[in-house]
Amino acid sequence: MVTTVMWFRRDLRLGDNPALLEAAAAGRVVGLFVLDPLLWERSGDPRREHLAASLRSLSASMGGRLVVRRGDPATVVPAVADEVGASSVQISADYGPYGQQRDEEVEASLNCPLLRTGSPYAVAPGRVLNQQGRSYQVFTPYFKAWLAHGWRQPVEPPSNVEWVKAASEELPDRAQGAGAGAGEQAVLTHWHEYLDGVTEYDDQRDRPDLDSTSRMSIPLKWGEIHPRTMLADLARKRSDGAKAYARELAWREFCADLLARNPHAAWKPLRPEFERMQYDEPDELFDAWCAGRTGFPFVDAGMRQLAETGFMHNRVRMVVASFLVKDLHVHWKYGARWFMRSLYDGDLASNSLNWQWVAGCGADAAPYFRIFNPVGQGLKFDPDGTYVRRWVPELRHLDGQAAHEPWRHGGAGGYPEQVVDHGEARREALRRYAAIRS
Q1: What phi, psi does 411 have (nearest 5°)?
Q2: Per-residue b or e along 302-331, where b marks 16 or more CB atoms closer than 10 Å to that residue's CB
Q3: Phi-psi label, residue 137: left if phi above 0, alpha if psi -120 to 50, beta otherwise
Q4: Is the distance from CB of 288 to CB of 416 less than 8 angstroms?
Q5: 20 to 30 Å CA-CA from 423: which of 154, 237, 344, 392?
Q6: What single-letter DSSP state applies at residue 385?
Q7: What is the mean pLDDT of each run of 10 residues along the chain (438 residues)?
């Protein structure tokens, strides 16, 4: 009987997994996950913890038959395929810079075909093109074309898969209690509960004090749910909130499309003139930013939320990123790397291209002169100071908006003074921007 290796990567689920359907239709299936030391060591604790929990959930859904091996995939995958006499290896296509190179190396080392079926996206990178057959550089026309292109409906999980057990190493350890919401079934339960209130998404998505976002960026990172599944559910809601949420999924796919076509954009600007931008080297001000001790409460609340939970509200991500690049004048790549180490949802394409958007050097980027006022942003999107008081305990004695401006209300014991003058920092940022345009 034919045996196929299903090599799981960013598709840690059984449902809506076209690659798994193809593998199961062919015959017996060996479910394999390779713990790649290169990726494992570069991941921060939050990502490692969630991955470990998700793998345990996936293995349980397979009757404990997930095969886990550690090592270079170019060595491990061919070895497993040879051990089980596989006729092919099935994968969901990877469009990241490292993933594409890795898969080419694995393919060259295999004694059987490597078959790519599906991807982590509703519309795979490279599919949405303009009338000249080129990819889009601006999101709005991309979004319209993305909607017009459409996507297939979700597929059911295969029934009665004959999982083949092979020699396996132990699943990675995880911190006590970590990953409580990890795994396909937990994610689906959470998503369906969130859908009950998605009509409010458009109105509330910029309010970190309400804690009303879905946090689905984490399971999307690991493929515990496919965006097609989410889009199908959203289409049934027919509300402005559901449409706004779908637009955010499209933005995620726009970022993936950009990175697939421009691998250097992981750490270098898409707009080449920004190679000439003057930045300061990370120093004690960068350390203060990382620790959430800048003296700007909205910024500090976000950085402390990140440190404690491995997550940060999207509006706050934009504000803390703007503060690092345009108030502290530190290159965005240092912030992007800190995020990748700290976030549960550390997705390279979304992370790097969103940092470039804030820094003004990416495709469809915010104008460089759009410099967020960290105090004004807090007053607007955390109007009662609830978010700040939640994460900055030194300010909990201040009521309402006073938490955003403690220097106006007698300060707070132990809370730091502002590390920069925002007005002066803004003028300096604009001076440096003018220099690269001259």
Answers
A1: 70, -165
A2: bbbbbeeebbbbebbbbbbbbbbbbbbbbb
A3: alpha
A4: yes
A5: 392
A6: S
A7: 96 97 96 95 89 95 96 98 98 96 98 97 95 90 96 94 94 62 95 93 92 92 97 94 96 96 95 95 98 98 96 96 98 97 94 96 81 97 97 95 92 88 97 91
